[in-house]
Amino acid sequence: MTTSPARSSFGSARSNFSLSDHDRQHHRQDLVGGAMLPIFLNDLNHNNQDLVEVTLELNNNDDDIVVCSVAPVASGTSEEETGPGMLGRSLSATSRSLRRTFGWLIRSTSSRTAASSNSSELPLPPREARRLKAKLQRTRSGAQRALNGLRFISKTTGPSDAEELWKQVEARFESLAVDGLLARADFGRCIGMADSEEFAVGIFDTLARRRRQNITKISKEELRDFWSQISDQSFDARLQIFFDMADSNEDGRITREGVQELIMLSASANKLSKLKEQAEEYASLIMEELDPENFGYIELWQLEALLLQRDVYIDYSRPLSAVSVAWSQNLSSFRPKNLLRRLNRSLNCLILDNWQRGWILLLWIVAMASLFAWKFYQYRNKAAFEVIRYCLPVAKGAAETLKLNMALILLPVCRNTLTWLRSTRARSFIPFDDSTNFHKMIAFAIAIGIIVHAGNHVACDFPRLVNSSPEEFAPISADFHGKKPTYEFLFTGPEGLTGILMVIFMAISFTLAASHFRKNMVRLPAPFNKLTGFNAFWYSHHLLGLVYVLLLIHGSCLYFVHKWYQKTTWMYISVPFLLYVVERSIRTCRSKHYAVKILKASNLPGNVISLIMSKPPGFKYRSGQYIFLQCPSISPFEWHPFSITSAPGDDHLSVHIRTVGDWTKELKRAISEGDHSISIVHQASVTAMDQRRLFNQPKLFLDGPYGAPAQDYRNYDVLLLVGLGIGATPFVSILKDLLNSTRTAEEQTDSNTETSTSDSLSSFTSSCLTPNDKKKSQRTTNAHFYWVTREPGSFEWFKGVMDEVAEMDHKGQIELHNYLTSVYEEGDARSTLITMVQALNHAKHGTDILSGTSVMTHFARPNWKEVFTKIASKHPFSTVGVFYCGLPMLAKELKMLSLELSQKTSTRFEFHKEYF
C-alpha cells in the first residue's frame, strides 16, 4: 500500500500524487497558492485511508494547475474486497474534496478532466468562486503593475525618501498649524495635496475613523501616524485606506452610494466636472460588474479584483502585446554587433537626416567667408590701409557679408515662392521646413556683422582717421575732397547718419522679435507693456522696410569707392527686395479677392472658436497647409496664421482658433456681439436656428494657402502625427483627407465590380486629383494620431472627425490616441478609480467617458519611446513621417527618438515640426 505522496514524479510539467478519499480539508479553502497542497497531502498520509493517484499538470504560461486524472492505487485490498461501488464512491469523494479544497486549481475543460467529469460535483457559489479566482490573480505577473499602484503620494518612497518627504511635511505643519494643531481643511496642503483638498479631506476622515475619533484638528504626532499610513509601501495597506474612504460605516462593505462618493472625490481631485456629474451612472456600472448577484454591496476583495484586472479591460485599446517580440527581432536584425559597423550606421543616419541642412549651411558659410576674404584683400591693398591699418579691411569684409545676409534674409519670408517650390523637385534637396530657423540664423549673423562693422568704424577707423598726421592723411585726402574729416562730419554725414539710423531700427526690431518679447513673457509696467506681444513684433518688423531704403543710401555714399559699378549694395538686395515687394503686392490683391463669409461659428471649450467659412472660387489647398486671416473691423494691418482643419474635398473652409491674444479675443467679441451677426453655438452640434443666415457679420479676408511640413504627408508610407492642444489642427485636415480617400476607395471598389478589369484600372487611376498625386495617394498606408491636451473639453473640438474616422476605418489603418495630462499619473490613488471606470465603460459600451467618442482617452503623458518602438515593429522597412505641432520642449525628444530608432531598426523616421 502506498503510504506517502513521495512517489510523485515532477517531469516536464506533469506530477502524480497519492491522495486519500478524505474530505476534512474544506475549512482550509481560504488558503491559496501552492503552500496548501503539501498540507493537504500530509494530512492524508497520516490517516489510514484508501489511496488514489491524482495527475496534475502545471501550466507555466497561465500559472495554474489542472487535474488531469484520478485513478486508484494498487494496495493490499483487492478490487473484489472493495467492490466497484466502493471504488467509484472513493474516486467521487476524492474529486469532490479536490474541487472544494483546490477550486482555484481546476479549469473547466472537458477534454482535460475526463476522469472527473463522471463524478458528482459540489460547485462553489459564484461569488465565492470569483473570490478565490481574485486571490489567484494576485500571483500572476500581469497584476504586478496594479499591485505597485494606488499611491497616495506621487513619489515612490524608500526609507531615505520617506524621511526626506516627512521633513517637508513637518515644515509645512509648522507653517500651517495653529497652537500646535493642524486643521482638517489644511491637511491636503500639509501632505502635498494642495490641489486635491477634497480628496485629502476624505483621507483625513478615513484615518480619523480608524482611531475611533471624530476630530477636526490633529497634532504633529497624529499627523506622523497618518503620514506613515498613507506612505506605507504595502499594496494591502493602501487598498484598505482606499476602501475605507467609501466604507463610512465600517462594516466592511461598500454600497453604490459609497462607490459614487469615491468617484466624485476622484473626479474633483482631477477637475473632471463632467465625470462628477455622471458619478451615479458610473457607480452603477461598477456595481453591475462587481456585484452581478445584486447583493447591493461589494467587499474589499472585489475592489481589489477590479484593480488587478485593469489590463483585461484596457489592453485591447493599446495593441502593444506583440511589441516586445517584434521589436527585439527588428532591433537585433538590423543593429550591427560590431562597434565600427554601428558607428558607421550611426554616421550614415546622421548624414541622411541632415545632409540637406548641411549643404545649405556649408554653402552659406563658404559664401560669407569668400566675400569677407575678397573684400579684406581688396582693402588691404588700398592706400587707406596705411592710415587705418587692419581695422578698415575687417570692417569692409563684415560689410560685404552684411550685404549678402540682408539679401538672403528676405527669401525665407517669401511664402508664395516657398509654397510653389515645395511642389517642385527642389524639395528633395532644399529643407523648406527649416526656413524659419534659417531666417533666424541669418538675423543672428547680421547682428554679429553689425557689431564687427560698426564697432571697427567707431572704435578704430574713425579715431585713426581723425587723429592721423597730415603726412599720413595725404594719400587719401582726395577721397575727402582734401579736407581732413572730424567726428562730427563722420557721424552726421550721409554714411554715418544712415548707419546710425539702421542700427537703431534693427536693434528695436531684433529685440521685439526675441521669443520672450514676442510671446509676451516679459512683464513691463504701463505704458511700456505695449512693447511686448505679437503686435509689437509685427509692427516693429515693418521698420526693416526703412532699413533697406537706408541701406541703399548708405551703400551709395562710400568714401573710398567712387565708381557706380563698384558700389555693389544694390546688386545684392535689388532682386530679393523686388521679389518680396511683388509677394506683398500679390498677397494684398489676393486678400481682397478672397473675402470670405462666416457660415457658422462654434464656441468650444478651452477658449476655442471654430469658424466655418465660405470657400472662395478657385481656392485650392492641400491638407496640412495654413492661411492668414484679417478682420478689418479689428485691424486693417494685422494678419494671423491658422491651420486649415477642413479637407481639400470639402465645400467650405474651417479653422479652429484659440483665444489667447488681443486679436483673437477681439475676433471672438466681434463675432458674438456684432449685431447678432452670427449665432455662437455653445455645443459642437448645430440646430436649424444656428444655421440661419444673417447679414451684418464681420468681414474676413483670407490670404494663402501657404506651405507647411505636413502638406507632404503622402510622401511617407506611415504617418505619426503628434499634436499638443490646439496643435492638433493641422493634422485634422490630414485625417479628413485620409478618410475621404478611404471613402473614395470604397466607392471605387464598388464601381469596379461592375466594370471590366481594364476599365476599373482606368477608373482607379483617374480618381486622383492631379498626375503628381497618383503615386502619393497610394503610398500612405497607415496613420497614428496622438493628441495630448490638458483640458478634457478639448476633445469636443473634433468629436465628429474622431467618430467618423473610427466608423469608416474598417481596416484599422488610422489609429487615434487621446491623452489627457491634467489627470494624475497612472498609479496615483486619485486617478486609479477613474482609470478603471474609463476602461470598464469603454470595454462594455465602446465609448469614452470624457470625449464621448469611441476613441479611448489615456491619462498622463504618452511613453514616446514605447510609441516609436511599437511603430517600428509594426512597420519594418517603411519610412515614417513624424509630424509635430506644439511646444518646443517635446520637439527635441521626438527628434532624438526619430534619429535613434532610425539607427537601430529597419524603419526610418523623418521628423518635421510645424512653424508659423
Q: Can you count the beta strands?
A: 19
Q: What is the global morphology?
A: elongated
* Mean pLDDT over the full residue set: 76
The unreliable regions are 1-41, 59-63, 74-120, 316-334, 675-694, 756-777
Beta-strand content estimate: 5-15%
Distance between the termini: 89 Å
Helix- and strand-based class?
alpha/beta
Biggest beta sheet summary? 6 strands, parallel
Q: Percent of residues in helical segments?
A: 40-55%
Strand line-up of the largest beta sheet? 17-16-15-14-18-19
* Spatial extent as radius of gyration: 38 Å
Determine the number of helices (DSSP H or I, runs of at least 4 residues). 35
Would you write up a description of this structure?
With 916 residues, this protein is of the alpha/beta class. Helix content is 50%, strand content 12%. It has 35 helices and 19 strands. The strands form five sheets. It has a six-stranded parallel β-sheet. It has a four-stranded antiparallel β-sheet with strand order 6-13-9-10. Helix 32 (799-808) links the parallel strand 15 and strand 16. Helix 7 (197-210) packs across helix 10 (256-269) and helix 15 (323-334) crosses helix 34. The longest helix has 42 residues, at 339-380. Mean pLDDT is 76; it is low at 1-41, 59-63, 74-120, 316-334, 675-694 and 756-777.
